[in-house]
Amino acid sequence: MIGVLLAEDQAMVLGALSALLKLESDIDVLGTAADGESAWRELQRLGNDGRTPDVLVTDIEMPGLSGLELAQRVQRHGLPTRVIIVTTFARAGFLRRALEAGACGYLLKDSPAEQLAEAIRQVHRGGRAIDPQLALDAWGEADPLNDRERQVLRLAGEGLTAGEIAAQLNLSQGTVRNYLSESIGKLGVGNRIEAYRLARQKGWL
After folding, report:
1. Contact predicate 34/14, CB 8 Å
2. Cα dihedral value 150, 156, 157, 158, nearest 10
3. Which of 104, 111, 128, 163 has its CA 20 to 30 A from that of 80?
């Protein structure tokens, strides 16, 4: 049996994924979580019970800890659990970041349902399961932003002022403005809003 943990913040999608996978004779849904931090706690709890999931299926955008950050944490702690991202974001930038975070699979939510079960089997065998068109696109254009620039730009795009961003990230306002200026320059746009929109469009945020 392949033990699976599901992380998805939309209750209806989470329920549907769980129900579909429970129809598979070789897949055991060990648990579900509505956000990244809950998924991390559930991973630890199952591990302590001697039932470490073979595969974690997670969305990208969730409250608190994102699916990409969750994948990075799994990788950083050396857990044997392999990660599959299931998302609506058909963007090469997201796929690149997912692979860099250690994810072994990247599927779109509009894929046929049976593809997820097959992807879980493939990843469990040590392979990869990646949307083929995205795989071709992923290496076309590199993400020019570093992690801190990405973090600052994301908060700016959410409407926070330089002072609020500085307080949240424990930086000076001057440092925040420098990061924003660097991001705007790297993306070749006129202001932080255009930078945010372009980076979102490319899948870099």
Report:
1. yes
2. 110
3. 111
Rounded to 5 degrees, what are φ and ψ at 134?
A: -65, -35
* Structure-token pair, residue 202: 């490319």
Sheet with 82-87: strands ordered across? 27-33, 2-7, 55-58, 82-87, 105-108, 129-130
State whether the Cα torsion 51-56-62-66 is positive or negative: positive
Model confidence pLDDT, tens digit, residues 7-61: 999 999 999 999 999 999 999 999 999 999 999 999 999 999 999 999 999 999 8
Q: Is 27 helix (H, G, I), strand (E, B) or coil?
A: strand
Beta-ladder partners of 129: 105
**pTM of the predicted structure, to 2 decimals:** 0.68
What does the block give as tokens for 93?
A: 């930038």
The answer to whether 135 and 89 have CB atoms below 8 angstroms apart is no
